[in-house]
């Protein structure tokens, strides 16, 4: 086969999102079927490559083997914290001064920096609250992580009363079984490793109202105590307030992303279940990579939808 034809075919079979190339169109279709590329993935501001996480995006920009063109532009105009590419090096400098949480700000100043109002409303959408538990070493050798619960403290509020107060605050006047993810009064709960915190408090909350930075795919990385945007969580001497600030900032960063609006943004939505169905194989193989990306949907709920 003519090598020029092979090159043209391979180039035609290039994923419009992650830029992987395939020898056959059917292989590209299968890739799109299982990759769940979408407008909600972290994307390089220079070459527009989609990455599964911000950690992958960081590797693409400044890792051991970055794309050279992207590395050079990012070195001059890229924010090392949020990985955003600015219009100029001056704009980058101004942006980075605001992008990193100051370490010595007071309580009111730090909340003002977060943009959180007194009623815990962050701009549009539902109210949000962050939760973190103070952990201490337990057991004979101190190797167990234990939550400081009221029964361990002198003159503390009884555990049941603590649970009731937290639940009442989260539900905000709505019965637990009536909580709606949209247009309701219940508050979104933000935290890092919330399964463990809620277990320690012997509480439950609706899964669709929980935003856990330890489980959010774009923030996933190997370390459980950090994240791909370099906000330190549960590191050093643990301070529940600092953990709440860090997780709230991460949530706000993710929620404030501007993504293309879609009527049915999730792959599990009824209208999207047949987007890459096997019975559409012939039709899909006639599509361009860009057309397939257009109908591809995310397999996770993006927080920008809040």
TrEMBL record:
PROSITE patterns found in the cross-reference section: ZINC_FINGER_C2H2_1, ZINC_FINGER_C2H2_2
Entry keyword annotation includes rRNA-binding: no
GO molecular function terms attached to this record: exonuclease activity; nucleic acid binding; zinc ion binding
InterPro entries given in the database record: REXO1/3/4-like, Ribonucl_H, RNaseH-like_sf, RNaseH_sf, Znf_C2H2_type
Gene3D superfamilies: Ribonuclease H-like superfamily/Ribonuclease H (3.30.420.10)
Record carries keyword Metal-binding: yes
Residue stretches making up the C2H2-type domain: 13-42
GO cellular component, one term: nucleus
Keywords: Hydrolase, Metal-binding, Nuclease, Zinc, Zinc-finger
Chain coiled-coil ranges: none
Name by which UniProt lists this protein: Apoptosis-enhancing nuclease-like
């Amino acid at each position: 086969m003519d090598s020029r034809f092979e090159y043209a075919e391979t180039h035609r079979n290039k994923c419009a999102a992650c830029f992987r190339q395939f020898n056959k169109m059917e292989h590209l279709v299968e890739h799109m079927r299982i990759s769940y590329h979408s407008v909600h993935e972290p994307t390089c501001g220079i070459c527009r490559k989609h990455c599964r996480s911000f950690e992958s995006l960081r590797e693409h920009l400044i890792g051991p083997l970055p794309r050279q063109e992207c590395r050079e532009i990012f070195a001059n105009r890229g924010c090392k914290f949020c990985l955003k590419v600015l219009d100029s090096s001056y704009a980058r400098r101004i942006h980075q001064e605001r992008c990193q949480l100051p370490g010595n700000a007071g309580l009111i100043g730090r909340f003002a920096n977060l943009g959180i109002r007194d009623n815990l409303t962050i701009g549009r959408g539902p109210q949000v609250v962050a939760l973190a538990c103070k952990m201490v070493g337990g057991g004979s050798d101190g190797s167990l992580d234990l939550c400081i619960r009221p029964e361990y403290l002198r003159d503390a509020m009884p555990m049941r009363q603590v649970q009731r107060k937290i639940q009442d605050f989260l539900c905000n006047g709505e019965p637990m079984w009536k909580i709606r993810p949209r247009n309701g009064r219940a508050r979104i709960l933000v935290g890092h490793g919330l399964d463990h915190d809620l277990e320690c408090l012997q509480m439950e909350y609706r899964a669709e109202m929980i935003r856990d930075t330890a489980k959010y795919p774009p923030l996933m990385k190997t370390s459980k105590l950090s994240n791909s945007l370099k906000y330190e969580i549960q590191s050093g001497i643990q301070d529940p307030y600092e953990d709440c600030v860090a997780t709230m900032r991460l949530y706000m960063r993710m929620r404030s992303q501007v993504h293309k609006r879609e009527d049915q943004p999730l792959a599990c939505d009824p209208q999207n279940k047949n987007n890459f169905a096997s019975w559409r194989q012939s039709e899909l193989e006639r599509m361009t990579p860009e057309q397939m990306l257009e109908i591809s949907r995310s397999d996770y709920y993006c927080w920008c939808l809040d």
